[in-house]
Amino acid sequence: MKDSIQVIFGFDMETDVGSFTPYYDGVKNATAPLVELFDKKGIQGTFYYTGDAARRNPESVELVKRSGNEVGCHSLFHETVGDELFPIPGVVPLLPEEVPLRIEKATQWVQQVLGEQPVSFRAPRLWGSTALLNSLEKLNYVSDASYPMYFYRERFMPYHPSSADWTKEGDMNIVEIPNFADMVMQSNDPGLERDRDQWPLFRTKGTDALMKHIEGFVKFLRERNLPVVLCFYFHPWEFIPIQESYHYGEATITPDRFLTLGCGDKAMKEFSLLIDRLKDMGSTFHRADDFARQWTKSKI
């Protein structure tokens, strides 16, 4: 694994625009085109379903399963199951003591639709925690892709976390896979440094803009003699037309423009191009579970 570029594409199968709407148009309408694109390109990835998304969209889960891609878990209702990194109005984090039951329930809901237990997880917004990782370990998950590299800035490659602090290396069986961020660029976001996280640059500015950050990070890793593992997160709603605002209940929700800009055909076109560009670099593409097992085996 050390000399090649390993890529994990993950899709967070959730309500449209994250927690900002109650709709599943992305899950309903983008699963098939994405699976078809993967098949055409000869690659595989992981689709992380919230328990609610799986129960409401069993045909989407079945399609992913039949295609040979992985069905993972993404919490129960796209909720904050880990440590809050920045506040979002109306989104209240679970208490640490609530996390084990919530993750167990989410796992059960996905399993009921999938027919087997999911073994890969990603926390909504990449907000993980030690309580979350211990819960996943207890349920025999093999991979978690929640580590936000842009925020913690300590782990640049996969690792087995510590049960005392999920951001540190330890002896847990689960493999933590950090999410790609540009650790070379000069951040203009003091403290949070969220601008290092390059989602959703592929659709807001295009693949060429994203590739500059990818190439810089690959160079950064190779100069340090570290393996190159690129883990990306996307959402099915990015690949359908998305409204700039939604009215439901008693309010109109208008997300920041970067969340909805370039969704639909542009996103699909740029994503296809991104796959080609990564292939040109000699990348290989993996499901999260397969990657984690290979990673663990290579360390034994």
UniProtKB/TrEMBL annotation:
The protein's matches in SUPFAM superfamilies, at most eight in alphabetical order, are given as:
Glycoside hydrolase/deacetylase (SSF88713)
Q: Identify a single GO molecular function assigned to this protein.
A: hydrolase activity, acting on carbon-nitrogen (but not peptide) bonds
Q: Where is the NodB homology domain?
A: 15-229
A GO BP annotation: carbohydrate metabolic process
In this entry, which stretches build a coiled coil? Answer: none
Q: Which PANTHER family does this one have?
A: POLYSACCHARIDE DEACETYLASE FAMILY PROTEIN (AFU_ORTHOLOGUE AFUA_6G05030)
What's the protein called, per UniProt?
Answer: NodB homology domain-containing protein
Query: Lineage from the top down?
Result: Bacteria, Bacillati, Bacillota, Bacilli, Bacillales
